[in-house]
Amino acid sequence: MPTRSARTAWTGSLETGEGQVELTSSKLGTYDVSFPKRAADDANGSTSPEELLGAAHSACYAMQLSAVLGASGGTIEALDVNADVTLGPDPDGGFRLTGIHLTVRGEVTGIDSETFLAAAQHAKATCPISKALTGVEITLDAELEQ
Q1: Where are the domains positioned within the chain?
Q2: What strands lie across the sheet with 95-109, from one edge to the other?
Q3: Distances from the Cα of 17 to the Cαs of 12, 21, 30, 78, 100, in angstroms?
Q4: CA dihedral over 105, 110, 113, 117, signed as positive or negative
């Protein structure tokens, strides 16, 4: 399996510094990052490690769920997956991820709601990004739309 890479160039302190995250493997772009914008309610044109992790988690989960649903006999018409990644204070100092909430809405033929919910839970447990984040509570809101 391939290795994918990203690079960050950073200047300055945590409080006043800034950087650029480059998606090196895909060459899809370079994005601004800064701690003040990371900690603010409005990202104001900058990304953050949490947003990038949310993108990775939602994509990985969608792929895993499609595999699980296919193995269950479902035909995937559409999956809409959102990953909300929350940063908060760490009781031991600094910051930590305090939770990830996955929301998925699926249009899948050939299965019932119970099968969809079971597949959604299984995909949450077996998605490689979920496996890598075992120290973070991951919650799920899944619904099959008819």
Answers
A1: 7-39, 49-144
A2: 75-89, 95-109, 138-144
A3: 4, 13, 17, 41, 27
A4: negative
- Per-residue pLDDT tens digits for 41-60: 899 899 999 999 999 999 99
DSSP label of 93: S
- Bridge partners for 109 per DSSP: 75
8 Å CB contact between 84 and 51? no
Mind listing the pLDDT tens digit for each residue in 88-144?
Answer: 999 999 999 999 999 999 999 999 999 999 999 999 999 999 999 999 999 999 999
For the domain 49-144, what is the CATH superfamily, name and number? Answer: K homology (KH) domain (3.30.300.20)
This prediction's pTM: 0.94
Token pair listed for 41: 């309610």
